[in-house]
Structures are given as structure tokens and as C-alpha cells.
């Protein structure tokens, strides 16, 4: 007969299982309704309110770009709310695809800042979300064109499958020190390529992206969670990192490889 575990032990085991599964990254899976655009439309989205907030509350500290959540005024919280209202009142499918990319990245990052501000002070975004949730990424974040969206929807069902660009992981920010930095400039159709390249260069050359200590190479857990977006094996991933990283190439590394990520809040 199978021995029954005490309730406390069973609950503890369940929590450990949930904790281990929390890091299982969502797959890229297209939400077909968003894969449409109007390439003849020359109109652009207005991201000036988001730029205002970035200019006022982003600071640099070493390898990190930090958001000063605690200093955000009530007036600027209203600016963020208005920006999100204005942005989500528009249907991005009526715009060019290049405009859409900037729309979704800025929306994701602005929504993440709002999630933190709504619950601040907190130590980590992972403390948010429902009971036994690891973060707020599966919670409803907004509504666009009548469709309810989560942060995971935006990243994994829209951005990743439509654009199929590994640099997306350097552009969307999860409000954590281990994450690629929140860009100091709002994305637009015109600056997307330069911002993506700059973000990739910055992250791969930072210690939180890749660092060598003797015979051990420590990579960001992003390359473990989303390795499929960077290459079909570890050496291919290292080759992709080398595209932007200065110094000695990582491809061909034969020592130990480990992964790390700092979920501490990206605040000063």
C-alpha cells in the first residue's frame, strides 16, 4: 500500500513543484488575429508621454538602467495612465508592421511599470500575481481592439511569433536587475533597428548577460529559457551572443556553463 504523506509535507512538495515549473518559459505561439497590418497607412503612434516618463525616472548605475518608482509623482502616474489609454484605444492592425512593433514593445514596458507602481513598494515583480503565481505575466494587463491581453500574450503570442527576432528579449523589460535594461528611448518605427542592436550589445557585454570566471561561463537565464530563439544548441547560442559581444568569442567554449538571473526590482 502506498504510504500517504502528511498534509504539510504534501503541500510543501506541491509548492516545490510549482516553484520549479515557474521558470518554464512560454513557447512562441502565434495569435493569428494580430498578424495583420495596413502597410499603406503612413500614420504613426505618439509615444511622447512614455518618453517623458523615461526621461524623468530612468537613471544609470553601473551596468543597470534603473526606474525610480518611488519618485513618480501623482501627476506622472496620470500621464502613464493616459498614455496607456490613448495607445490601447487604437487598433495596431490598422498601422504598418514597423509601427506595430514599436507599439507592442512600448506597451509591454509601460504596462510593466504600471504593474509595479500599482503595488509599490515591492522587492520583486515575482511577488505579484495570484496565489501560487510566479509574477503577474498571466494576469489580464489591458484590452486592445476588444481583446483581453496579458503580458505573456504580448511577448509570446504577438511579438515573438510575428517578428521572429531574438533581439525582442533585449527589448521587453521585466522590471528586474537580471533583465536587459529598459531602453532610455521609446521605440518608434524609425529607431527600432538601432535600439535593438544597442540593447543586444549592451546586454551581451554586461556581466548579467555573460561573464567568465576561470573555467566557468555564467550566462543569463534568458539564454536557457528562450534558447530556441537564439540557436538550436548551446554552441549556436554562444555564436549568436558573439555577434554583439566584444572581446574573446564564446563559441567553442569547453568549460562549465551555468545560468543565473537576478529578480530584484530594477530600482535605485
Structure description:
Residues 1-24 form the signal peptide. InterPro entries: DUF547 (IPR006869). Pfam families: DUF547. Keywords: Signal. Residues 93-203 form the DUF547 domain. Helix 3 packs antiparallel against helix 4 (97-119) and helix 4 (97-119) runs antiparallel to helix 5 (151-163). The protein is built from ten helices and seven strands. The longest helix is centred in the middle third of the chain and has 23 residues, at 97-119. It has a three-stranded mixed β-sheet with strand order 5-6-7. A two-stranded antiparallel ribbon has the order 1-2. With 268 residues, it is of the alpha+beta class. The protein folds into two domains: 28-204, no CATH class; 210-260, no CATH class. Mean pLDDT is 92; it is low at 1-22.
Question: Into how many domains do the coordinates divide?
Answer: 2
Whole-number radius of gyration?
Answer: 20 Å
Taking all residues together, what is the mean pLDDT? 92
- Number of beta-strand segments: 7
Q: How far is the N terminus from the C terminus? A: 56 Å
Number of helices: 10
Profile the largest sheet: 3 strands, mixed
Strands of the widest sheet, in order across it, are: 5-6-7
Structure classification: alpha+beta
Low-confidence stretches: 1-22
Q: What is the succession of H and E elements?
A: HHEEHHEEHHHEEHHHE
> What share of the residues lie within helices?
40-55%
Residues in β-strands, percent:
5-15%
How would you sum up the global shape?
A: globular
Amino acid at each position: 500500500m502506498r504510504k500517504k504523506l502528511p498534509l504539510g509535507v504534501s503541500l510543501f512538495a506541491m509548492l516545490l513543484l510549482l516553484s520549479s515549473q515557474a521558470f518554464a518559459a512560454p513557447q512562441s505561439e502565434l495569435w493569428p488575429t494580430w498578424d495583420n497590418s495596413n502597410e499603406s497607412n503612413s500614420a504613426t503612434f505618439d509615444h511622447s508621454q512614455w518618453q517623458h516618463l523615461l526621461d524623468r525616472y530612468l537613471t544609470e548605475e553601473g551596468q543597470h538602467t534603473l526606474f525610480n518608482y518611488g519618485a513618480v509623482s501623482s501627476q506622472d502616474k496620470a500621464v502613464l495612465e493616459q498614455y496607456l489609454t490613448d495607445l490601447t484605444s487604437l487598433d495596431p492592425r490598422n498601422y504598418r508592421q514597423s509601427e506595430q512593433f514599436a507599439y507592442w514593445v512600448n506597451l509591454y514596458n509601460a504596462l510593466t511599470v504600471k504593474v509595479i507602481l500599482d503595488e509599490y513598494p515591492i522587492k520583486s515583480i515575482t511577488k505579484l500575481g495570484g496565489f501560487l503565481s510566479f509574477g503577474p505575466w498571466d494576469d489580464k494587463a489591458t484590452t486592445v481592439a476588444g481583446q483581453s491581453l496579458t503580458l505573456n500574450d504580448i511577448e509570446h503570442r504577438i511579438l515573438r511569433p510575428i517578428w521572429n527576432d531574438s533581439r525582442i528579449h533585449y527589448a521587453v523589460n521585466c522590471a528586474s536587475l537580471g533583465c536587459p535594461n529598459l531602453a532610455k528611448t521609446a521605440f518608434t518605427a524609425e529607431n527600432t533597428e538601432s535600439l535593438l542592436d544597442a540593447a543586444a550589445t549592451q546586454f551581451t557585454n554586461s556581466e548579467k548577460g555573460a561573464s567568465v570566471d576561470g573555467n566557468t561561463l555564467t550566462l543569463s537565464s534568458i539564454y536557457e529559457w528562450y534558447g530556441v530563439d537564439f540557436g538550436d544548441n548551446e554552441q549556436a547560442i554562444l555564436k549568436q551572443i558573439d555577434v554583439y559581444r566584444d572581446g574573446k568569442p564564446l563559441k567553442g567554449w569547453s568549460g562549465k556553463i551555468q545560468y543565473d538571473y537576478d529578480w530584484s526590482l530594477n530600482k535605485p
